[in-house]
Amino acid sequence: MKLKTLALVAALACGSTYAQTVDVRDAWVRTSVPGQKATGAFMKITARESVRLMGGSSPVAGVVEVHEMKLDGDVMRMRAVPDGLELPAGKTVELKPGNYHMMMLDLKTALPKGSTVPLTLVFKDARGVEGKVELKVPVATAAPGTPAATR
Question: Are the CB atoms for 106 and 37 separated by under 8 Å?
């Protein structure tokens, strides 16, 4: 019984360590309409130690993946990043429209402007240890603070 309690305490400590070593700012999720099956989440992430953003989860989506949009010749393509996104120590990495972002697939409901969405980000360090950061993210039409966001 003591071993199970110790394992639980260790697991909880790992999660809180990530909250202390990964800073997420200016997060937002793009609005969606009824019947829409996907949207994106965007944010700025700074990690004290090098880690990889592996993916995420949310109760409003069946799948949350790291995606990249990239110009391939004359065609803009989007693809999942199966090995995660490298977050170098001390460097802010911006997830933004038209670039890296969190793709929320199989939406279970519409996401109206002004609501908030629970979003869990999953990270992996160089030792392969996973950690999570829990967020409450505002839903908007554009990045908060931009002129398009006020419409």
Answer: yes
